[in-house]
Design goal:
- This protein is α+β, with helices and mostly antiparallel strands.
- It has two domains: 191 residues, no CATH class; 58 residues.
- The termini are far apart.
- Helix content is 27%, strand content 27%.
- The radius of gyration is 20 Å and the shape is globular.
- The protein has six helices and ten strands; from the N terminus they run ββββαβαβαβαβββαα.
- Strand 8 and strand 9 form a beta hairpin.
C-alpha cells in the first residue's frame, strides 16, 4: 500500500441539465470504474459507498490549477476568484445507471451530490451543458494493485474528506464517469435531499409489479430520464417562442429579450 494522501485526479462527463428550484445543481461525482486519469485508479462500488459523503463541502474551481501556478502560491490558498461553486452534500446512489455504461466500463451506482454554483458557471452550464464536465481532484488514503475488467490499475482504498485539500472542478475533459443531472425532484419536491430521488422512490414502489430487477429498473429509469429531457426541451422552446412573440409585438430584433428565465 502506498503512503497516505496520494493525489487523485479524475474527471466526469456532463449532459443536458437544469437546476433545482433552489438554484442548486445535481451532479454525479464518481462512478465505479477504472479512471482515465494518471495511474489508472480503480474506484470500487464498496469504497465509493463508504466514502460517498467525503465530498461534502469541497470547493468547485474553474479548471484544475497548473503545477506552475500552484508552486507560485507558495502554500497560500487559491483565490476566491477561482471559485465556481461548492459541493453542498454528497451521497451514494446505488441505482444510478447510464445508457453507455457497458461501453465506458462503469458499474451501477454513483457518488452523487448537490452543488451551488456562481452566476457565471450557471450561465455556462445552461447554455453549453454538454461541454461542461467535472473533474475530481482529491486525496486517497492509500492504494493497492488490482485489476478492473481485465486492466491493471491501483485500487483506491479511501478518500480524504478534507475541503482544504480536495476539490471537484469544472473542466472540459472526462475521466471517471459522472454527469450533470437533470433535476430529479419533478415528482415530489418535498422529498429530503440525499435520501434517494423521487423517481427512484417511485421505482421502488413498483417492485411488486415486477420492475424491481436491475435490468427492468435501468430501462425504466432511462425511459423516465429521456421523457424529462424531452419535457425540458419543450419548455425551453415554448419560452423562446413567447419571448420571440413579445419582441415581434414590440418591433424589436429577435434575441433582444434573451432567453427569459436565463436572464
Amino acid at each position: 500500500m502506498t503512503a497516505l494522501a496520494l493525489h487523485l485526479v479524475e474527471a466526469t462527463a456532463g449532459t443536458p441539465s437544469t437546476f433545482n428550484a433552489d438554484g442548486t445543481l445535481n451532479v454525479v461525482i464518481l462512478r465505479p470504474c477504472r479512471g482515465r486519469g494518471p495511474g489508472g485508479r480503480i474506484y470500487t462500488a464498496e469504497m465509493l459507498r463508504e466514502n460517498a459523503e467525503a465530498f461534502a463541502g469541497f470547493p468547485m474551481f474553474d479548471n484544475h490549477e497548473p503545477e506552475a501556478a500552484k508552486r507560485a502560491r507558495q502554500g497560500l490558498p487559491r483565490p476566491p476568484s477561482d471559485l465556481a461553486g461548492q459541493v453542498l452534500e454528497s451521497w451514494w446512489d446505488p441505482n444510478h445507471v447510464g445508457p453507455d455504461d457497458a461501453k465506458l466500463g462503469f458499474d451501477p451506482g454513483a457518488v452523487v451530490g448537490r452543488a451551488a454554483v456562481t452566476d457565471a458557471m450557471e450561465q455556462l452550464v445552461r447554455r453549453l451543458p454538454k461541454a461542461v464536465k467535472l473533474s475530481v481532484n482529491a486525496l486517497a488514503t492509500g492504494v493497492r494493485p488490482g485489476v478492473w475488467k481485465g486492466k491493471r490499475g491501483a485500487i483506491v482504498e479511501g478518500i480524504v474528506g478534507d475541503p482544504e485539500r480536495g476539490s471537484v472542478d469544472f473542466v472540459t475533459t472526462a475521466g471517471a464517469g459522472g454527469e450533470v443531472l437533470l433535476r430529479e425532484s419533478a415528482v415530489d419536491d418535498s422529498l429530503p435531499a440525499g435520501d434517494g430521488s423521487a423517481w427512484e422512490r417511485m421505482l421502488d414502489r413498483m417492485g411488486d409489479s415486477g420492475t424491481n430487477d436491475v435490468v427492468g429498473r435501468a430501462r425504466l429509469r432511462e425511459s423516465l430520464r429521456a421523457q424529462r429531457e424531452e419535457n425540458v426541451v419543450l419548455v425551453e422552446a415554448s419560452s423562446r417562442s413567447a419571448w420571440a412573440r413579445r419582441e415581434a409585438d414590440a418591433g424589436l430584433p429577435l434575441g433582444t429579450f434573451g432567453m427569459g428565465g436565463d436572464r
